[in-house]
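So, read this over?
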Amino acid sequence: MEEMSAPQASEMGEETTPAQPPAGGRRTQLKIVRESVESLSKDVGSLRKSSEASAKKLEAHMKSLRKEFGAHTRSKDLGEHAKSHRADTKRLEKQLATLRKELAAFKSQMAKEAARSRAREEAALARFAAKVKAAEPKKLRAKASKKKR
């Protein structure tokens, strides 16, 4: 009986509303995507804060090394300390170069991580959009085939 009433309703010109997705449907997917985006945003924010803190520490360390380096270059007692002065200067220059390299590597790593998280976010949104687009035409095709019968 129910099967006969549905075709009669469509033959009479009454349009039925599209079937609502189950409770775990589009809204749940949107909620999951929003939560993923929020967690990625929080991760990027915390990563940025930690990188800024470590960059400040590195800058402070470089500043102290510069002071130490400057103190060694102004040394007046060249007799006894000339040899140790040169060794210390070389050591400090190497440390300074190493710290600069580490700082540059850290900054590039931060840029890469930010790009990766943006790419992940865009990929998740693209997958979600593709699923939504793929789901809509199937519903429309199902309605059209029911009307022809």
About this structure: The first helix runs from residue 2 to 11. The chain has a mean pLDDT of 76. The helical segments are 2-11, 26-73, 78-148.
